[in-house]
Design goal:
With about 325 residues, the protein is α/β, with parallel strands linked by helices. It contains 11 helices and 10 strands. Strands 1, 2, 3, 4, 5, 6, 7, 8, 9 and 10 form a 10-stranded mixed sheet that branches.
């Protein structure tokens, strides 16, 4: 009889035939740093995650590095927001300041990335500049992204990660970086990014809920076929993306798989705030085994073909992985 169970019988057999591995080096920790606070501020919808102070973000970065985590990605939350998202390219803005701190702390031990968008910095909460009728103006926004990319590069970012889903954003950022003397700075493009309810807790974390409407006119529609995610990734690669991302992860693993097969650059997947919150909420009730479910989701994302996984559990999971 054909018996697939033969190789499942003992832990040693299972370990021998296991193919999909998650390594700390594959994980990227998203971190929030907020201007003007003196203590880390808990995020109620993401238990265990905080808005950091400039001091505490250094510590979090050092812990991630010590655990062997591959990278971190920084999000800044300024005190003052305005229509053009001025904080995004202010050389003295919170993300630029924290970035320089973090790079000096751990910049040789892990890769320090920056999320590049306007929504954390705009008073209306949208990812770009608005037209007079309240639509997001794609091409005017590109200039703001270019300026933010240069500001992040000058502050020491080691990878910029545009997440705003404007058409042409990768080409605009690449051109600006090249012109400012940063031809070697890689771009990790959030390429296939869906308009998702799974970002709910992030909007508390980054204080960036849109003040009207939603992001469906620029982020992708979940009901479109997988191939649209592939198309977005291919466009970004053609524009010069060095790596591409699919986001969220768990509800879009078909896109992760298809993008991985279509491109020859590294593929990342972002296990987003809502994915985190759901597991934490269920685990807090004792309804699921927290550690097993976290490792299972990370394994699933790797199995779908993502080389890198952005996850709020990065440091903790790296610790578990080191235990074996
Ligand atoms: C945009 C951005 C968002 C996330 C990462 N970058 C929010 C959005 O698009 O609404 C969401 C991440 C998460 O939910 O964990 N700057």
């Amino acid at each position: 009889m054909v018996r697939p169970r033969r190789l499942r019988r003992t832990p040693a057999l299972r370990r021998l035939v296991a193919d999909v591995r998650v390594s700390p080096a594959d994980l990227v920790l998203p971190v929030f740093v907020k201007e003007g606070i003196s203590e880390p501020a808990p995020i109620s919808s993401m238990p265990g995650v905080v808005q950091h102070t400039r001091d505490s973000v250094r510590k979090a970065a050092a812990e991630a590095a010590a655990a062997g985590v591959g990278g971190l990605i920084l999000f800044g939350i300024p005190v003052v927001k305005d229509a053009r998202g001025s904080g995004a390219d202010d050389p003295h803005g919170i993300v630029q300041l924290a970035l320089a701190d973090v790079v000096s702390e751990v910049g040789e031990d892990l890769v320090v990335m920056t999320d590049l968008c306007l929504d954390e910095y705009t008073d209306h909460g949208h990812c770009g500049l608005l037209t007079s009728s309240g639509e997001v103006d794609n091409d005017a926004t590109l200039e703001r992204y270019a300026a933010a990319a240069v500001a992040q590069a000058r502050a020491g970012s080691q990878v910029v990660a545009p997440s705003g889903m404007m058409d042409g954003q990768v080409a605009a950022i690449r051109a600006a970086l090249d012109a400012d003397g940063f031809p070697d700075l890689p771009i990790l493009a959030y390429s296939a990014k869906y308009a998702s309810a799974f970002y709910g807790p992030f909007r508390e974390a980054a204080e960036c809920a849109p003040q009207f409407g939603d992001r469906s006119a620029y982020q992708q529609d979940a009901a479109r076929p997988t191939a649209e995610g592939v198309r977005e990734a291919l466009l970004d690669v053609a524009e010069g993306a060095d790596a591409v991302m699919v986001k969220p992860a768990m509800a879009y693993l078909d896109v992760v798989r298809a993008v991985g097969e279509a491109v020859d650059v590294p593929v990342a997947a972002y296990q987003v705030s809502g994915e985190y919150a759901m597991v934490e909420a269920a685990a807090a009730q004792g309804w699921v085994d927290r550690r097993r479910i976290v490792l299972e989701t990370l394994t699933g994302i790797r199995r779908a073909g993502a080389g890198m996984v952005l996850t709020y559990w990065a440091t903790e999971a790296a610790g578990w992985l080191a235990e074996g």
